[in-house]
Specification:
It is built from 9 helices and 9 strands. By secondary structure, it is an alpha/beta fold. Strands 1-2-4-5-6-7-8-9 form an 8-stranded parallel beta barrel, surrounded by 5 helices. α6 runs parallel beside α7. The chain is globular. The protein starts with a strand and ends with a helix. The protein binds SN-glycerol-3-phosphate and magnesium ion (MG). The site of magnesium ion (MG) has 3 residues, from β2.
Length: 250
């Protein structure tokens, strides 16, 4: 079971910042999950919300800000009591760094509300520029983005269908992903059940679950044999998984 640091080590550091990414690697995460948007002047950037208001000292939508405007903001606003200022990373800055790391990156294409028409092709071009083709997977709540990505990327690149609690693929997620050409199903931890796990396995669809921050969920998902989890505290599942390995040797 692979552990992905959700928005980096976001339980202890400002989410989706280089600081949170570096610290996730420090605690031995297998992977990092991040979210990609596009600025007004077409630069790919790493940020969760469409707006900068919650996480930075700025205001407005990313698609209405230039990259220069975005870079003047402090992305560590919520952690000002603990850390100095951090910038919203350019996706390119992340890729340049990730090329030197032994980690997998789940790139979530954030086209849920605002559609950035060329985001799939631009994201893939950046991956190719930094030779990350074999070290990534893509996901999106907007499955159309995964369908567009499928037309661009080689077959070995995993594509994940993200679903929310209330909506999404409630039944036959494995059959759905297989038919659509996606290789992974990304449900919320609360939405997963025996039947859906079985359906994914029957159709050869990998399951990566978000966001796993408690032990009960971790144990349940491990017993199900899911492929990956996204956690805000990657050090905890990593330590727990290492302990399971030790126990099974005894
Ligand atoms: O990709 C898993 C998770 O990140 C999906 O939800 O809202 O944190 O992007 P969100
Ligand atoms: Mg995400």
């Amino acid at each position: 079971m692979r552990v992905f640091a959700h928005r980096g080590y976001s339980g202890k550091y400002p989410e989706n910042t280089m600081l949170a990414f570096r610290e996730a690697v420090e605690v031995g995460t297998d992977g990092i999950e991040l979210d990609v948007h596009e600025t007004k002047d077409g630069v790919l950037v790493v940020h969760h919300d469409e707006r900068v208001d919650r996480t930075t000292d700025g205001t407005g939508r990313i698609c209405d800000l230039t990259f220069e405007e975005l870079r003047s903001l402090n992305a560590a606003k919520l952690w000002a009591h603990k850390y100095g200022p951090e910038k919203v990373p350019a996706f390119e800055e992340y890729c340049e760094w990730a090329a030197e790391q032994s980690i997998v990156t789940n790139i979530e294409i954030k086209t849920d509300n605002t559609y950035y028409p060329d985001i799939e092709a631009k994201t893939w071009d950046m991956i190719v520029k930094y030779g990350l083709e074999r070290k990534i997977l893509f996901s999106s709540f907007n499955h159309f983005s995964m369908t567009r990505m499928k037309a661009i990327v080689p077959d070995y690149v995993d594509l994940g269908a993200l679903v929310e609690h209330e909506s999404g693929v409630k039944v036959f997620p494995g059959a759905y992903c297989r038919a659509a050409g996606y290789t992974c199903y990304h449900p919320p931890v609360a939405g997963l059940n025996d039947e859906n796990v079985r359906n994914c396995k029957e159709h050869g669809i990998k399951i990566n679950v978000w966001t796993v921050n408690d032990m009960d969920a971790l144990e349940r998902l491990y017993a199900w044999g899911v492929d990956g989890i996204f956690s805000n505290y990657p050090s905890i599942p990593k330590a727990w998984l290492a302990a399971q390995k030790d126990l099974s040797r005894k």
